[in-house]
Amino acid sequence: MTTSGQTLRERKKLRTRQALADTAISMFGERGFDATPLDAVLDAVEVSRRTFFRNFRSKEDVALIDVKQLWSTYLDVLDEAEKSGPLVDVFRDAVLATLDRMTEDWYGRFPVTLRLIERSPSLEGYSLRHCAEVQEEIARRLGDPRRLELRLLIEFCVATWRCALAEWLPDCAPGELPACVRRAFAVMDAGLRLEA
Prior knowledge:
The protein is mainly alpha-helical.
């Protein structure tokens, strides 16, 4: 959270948003997403519903803040990336560059978010919808989103990312996630070359 060049009001709004996110993730992690009413989060941060809804669209939105931050950063990295060579390499390298930009705080909250998604059908549905939107945006930025080969490649890459997360999730050491991503993409590449 950068504060240089921001007004006092902007800094206060960022602090409130961060407090809501940190408190929500912590409470959801302890009590469960479905078992934690939004009012409990609001009481803990001492803000009104109006303040909450100025910052987030829904309870699901605040629960997935770290997922959304990851993919928002990924899209920024993808825009900056040299798009030459195999697109699978572009996708993998953009994931690795994105992980380099994530903070220690993000690495602390992200596993909690992943576990919340696993345990809550409503969050899982919200997450899947967000993932589909991100995949559509990736396809748009890499070419024609209607192109079957591109859509399939993105599906393979997202599935590979999920496998890397599954490998990383038990221990969640921040430095290990990039290594899990590299391994998963290497295995995917080898698997696609398998012969009958």
